[in-house]
Amino acid sequence: MKKEELFNTIVDANQNRIRRICAYYNENENDQQDMFQEILINIWKSLDNFKNKSSINTWVYRVAVNTALSFNGKSYKYMRLIVTADMENLNVITDDSGKEKKLLEEQQLEQLQNELNILSVIDKALVSLMLEGLSMKEISDIIGITEANVKVKIHRIKDALKSKLNTKR
């Protein structure tokens, strides 16, 4: 398959994921579009370096997250993670039992978003990938830390968020 065909296939299959990542890391629609274009450019530039060590989707997530983190330059430390109530995987943070499928009320969502934005850059990246519904292995491949470390970090993030959200009620 030619590079152009492969690129078009990748973009077609991952366009919505890439747009969600852009929305996680920037609430301004124009900046989201710029970030989306930057991610596409980076995918194109890096396509020759893809070595099939992970799935193409995992590789695209890695390129997208790394681009999103570097998009704002030194201001990445203050980057806000944008979470919306229409996200199907939002319950992975607040509901371990899986019994309740209802969306968080607006006030809880705002509290959650405020708490998420206090997290470190790496923790924000972990949460955004978790919200995408990725496995621990996929997150590990994307972030570049061990799967065990991902599990520990996500467990600690979830515990801290639950604790903070329960005390603010």
TrEMBL record:
Residues 11-70 form the RNA polymerase sigma-70 region domain. Pfam families: Sigma70_r2, Sigma70_r4_2. Keywords: Sigma factor, Transcription, Transcription regulation. It comes from the Bacteria. InterPro entries: RNA_pol_sigma-70-like (IPR039425), RNA_pol_sigma-70_dom (IPR014284), RNA_pol_sigma70_r2 (IPR007627), RNA_pol_sigma70_r4_t2 (IPR013249), RNA_pol_sigma_r2 (IPR013325), RNA_pol_sigma_r3/r4-like (IPR013324), WH-like_DNA-bd_sf (IPR036388). Signal peptide: none annotated. GO terms for molecular function: DNA binding; sigma factor activity. GO terms for biological process: DNA-templated transcription initiation. Residues 110-161 form the RNA polymerase sigma factor 70 region 4 type domain. PANTHER family: RNA POLYMERASE ECF-TYPE SIGMA FACTO, RNA POLYMERASE ECF-TYPE SIGMA FACTOR. Belongs to the sigma-70 factor family. ECF subfamily. This is RNA polymerase sigma factor. It comes from Carboxylicivirga sediminis.
